[in-house]
Design a protein that fits this description.
about 300 residues; alpha/beta; Elongation Factor Tu (Ef-tu), domain 3; 14 strands; about 30% helix
Length: about 300
């Protein structure tokens, strides 16, 4: 997928089918829009384009870092992603100018796909109804998607954030249409895992939203391959830390490579237990063995 960072860097795009939105989280509703745009682009031998914004226009905490969002968009087969820097100057652009100068003149959108709850332009004046009125004037075709619902409630990034913050991993997974995940960089740690006999990769997350403290069964995506593992999130209370900073550590089963500096994605399979302060290092090591045994039952025996 080609990534264009900034409106002024857009060059001629062949038959652009444009999906417009923030797409934070890439949940089921977002995926429906992007997959539909991709299908049409392939059918007409055009170019599927996503136009998204960073940082979040509503100043909300994002489910995913921009890097993670771009990776997920690419996985859906999109050809081009335009990332708009949502700053004060951009926020002043009127909805009408956004349509005329960016969607029509800069991108040359032949088709525009958008969710009916998406707002744009200064003071969020623009909506799908304004796009519909503009379609005839500028000669593009608009497809506006209804908000996807689950159990009577709208699927939204806000609802998913709330579920993640309550450790309701499976419920959040259903709304996302895939597992809750965190992208991060492997960094050097205290090497405590090695001392305990369970070497871990310490993760510097790129995210604003991570699951609360606890132990989780996870799958790790690294360099195009998937591995089973276990993840700890917490302040290491047994070690009596001087500060309460949160650590993210993953132990990857049957894995011994040096991966410092690598990006990896942690996919959360199931919550196992709360973080807990143990009386000794030995007691902690014993609990980790139990955690790993419990974790191993969460994956198919063939893996």
């Amino acid at each position: 997928m080609k990534i264009i960072r900034g409106i002024n860097k857009i060059s001629k795009i062949h038959k652009p089918v444009l999906a417009l939105g923030v797409f934070d989280g890439l949940h089921r509703g977002h995926r429906q829009i992007l997959k539909s745009a991709g299908r049409l682009a392939r059918k007409i031998k055009g170019t599927s384009v996503v136009l998204t914004f960073w940082p979040h226009p509503q100043k909300e905490k994002s489910l995913y870092s921009l890097e993670h969002r771009l990776r997920l968009i690419a996985e859906l087969g999109i050809d081009v992603c335009v990332v708009v820097n949502f700053n004060r100057n951009f926020a002043k652009i009127t909805a009408e100018d956004f349509i005329a100068k960016i969607l029509v003149k800069k991108i040359g959108a032949s088709f525009i796909y958008v969710g009916k709850n998406f707002r744009f332009g200064a003071k969020a004046f623009g909506d799908y109804k304004l796009l519909a009125r503009s379609a005839t004037k500028y000669g593009f075709v608009l497809k506006a998607f209804n908000v996807v619902r689950s159990k009577g409630a709208s699927i939204s990034s806000t609802a998913i954030r709330e579920l993640i913050n309550k450790r309701k991993i499976k419920e959040a997974e259903k709304l996302l249409g895939r597992r809750v995940s965190v992208l991060g960089t492997v960094i050097s740690g205290s090497k405590l895992g090695r001392v305990l006999g369970f070497p871990t990769a310490n993760i510097n997350p790129h995210h604003e939203i991570i699951p609360p403290a606890g132990v989780y069964a996870v799958q790790i995506n690294l360099s195009g391959k998937s591995y089973d593992g276990i993840c700890y999130i917490g302040a290491r209370p047994t070690m009596r830390p001087k500060n309460k900073s949160i650590h993210i550590e993953v132990h990857i089963f049957k894995f011994r490579r040096n991966i410092y500096g690598k990006f990896l994605e942690i996919q959360f399979v199931e919550f196992l237990r709360l973080d807990h302060k143990f009386a000794s290092i030995e007691e902690l090591a014993g609990q980790i063995k139990k955690d790993m045994l419990s974790c191993s039952t969460k994956f198919p025996a063939s893996r």
